[in-house]
Amino acid sequence: MIKRQKYHLEPDRGLLNDPNGLVFYKDMYHVFFQWNRFEKNHSYKEWGHFTSKDLLHWNWEGSALLPEQFYEQNGVYSGSALIKDGQLRLFYTGNNKSGGVRKSSQCLAVTEDGKTFQKKGIVLSTPTEFTEHFRDPKVWQDGDNYYMVIGAQMKNGRGSVALCSSKDAENWKFELVLAKSKEYEMVECPDYFQVDGQGILLYCPQHRDNERDSSLCSFSAYKEFDFNDIVSGKIEDSNVQNLDEERKKMDQGFDFYAPQTFTSPDGRKILFAWMSRMEEEEEKLFGEGESSIHCMTLPREISYRNGELCQLPVRELEKSLCIHKISEQERQSGEIILKNRVYCAKLSNLQNETSFEIEFQNREVILEYKKVEKIISVKRKNWVTKDYDERNCKIDSLETIECWSDISSMEIFVNQGSKVFSMRMFTEEENGKVKISGLMKETVVEMYDLMGEGEEKNE
Fold first, then answer.
1. Fewest CB atoms less than 10 Å from the CB: which of 10, 107, 198, 288?
2. Average pLDDT over residues 409-418
3. What share of the chain is helix, strand, coil (3-state, %, to 5)?
């Protein structure tokens, strides 16, 4: 069973997780990420590095930040990037567990060529209001000031987001608790940005066993949030946000976590996320015969429409599509066979559909729509039990569906990305098989092959 992806970012060995330091710097897109290059587990963390000129063809750059200093000796954890005075500045969490006691420090490394990195040390220690679960700094500039949101845990064992500020992006101070959760014990990977005039706070609520200091479960969420409510002449702490109310899921599927955004040269807001279910079953599936585990999602353009954060594959990916002309026999039978598992299926003009089903890869993934119930559901075969796991969401109406399939993943974008289902999938099928049942004649179905069979993803 081939699992290595064709056009999703993944290293040549080891374990990948959170995207870090996303940025466009000196005519190149940079994607850093959490990486264990030695084993397929979370026992070690450094930053790996990809670069690209077009978000389509990627270069593997290898290691970027190693856990070389005392304050980071147990892991160079997640963080973000900022361009200032021609330098690329990488902010990250240094993790130290000397004597079994966790100590987190927010750290800085700089580069002027995007290849060699100089450590500048600790720029912020954990404030007294928090435990040492204080990590994942996301930094941005607003006017003459710089701000940093950090995922945190309060001393009472509840999750929160901390806000810090700086005048020079070097000397940082804690300002206030920006947001709190009563339901969750930790918040990871926060990100604040504005898109289409709307402020958005991304965050990952996490249940933890605080006594055992272990993670139980988590997911990615967002909520509408106007930063100007907090920063209006001066910073106030009276507008602390409730992370448990009015939150929305970033992804309806099985495998999506730790999203991070950045701005492209033409002003688009682009997102990557870690596409993993974070469960032991997947690690067991990637046994001795596989050199690496986990991958990124597609790079996605972010927009805000009709009260929802929408995600679609970046427009650059359209350049990789090659039309697959559907034969009359395929049209009549509803079963379309592509040359491999790397393809894109687009369905439009779906407004009048009442119910239909799409099977992918010999029922490895099944999408079903029911208009009366206003539900779209996706079932994915569990590779351990062979039963189906299911995710679904409510939609008032259905207009479009895009399904992007890679060797061992699928990303389904509904209604121009207002809902997204992301998942890994593993099948013995070599061909791409799509079977559609119940569609009306006026529905438009387009199938595309992606890239040539011999073309490599990472050059």
1. 288
2. 97
3. 5, 55, 40
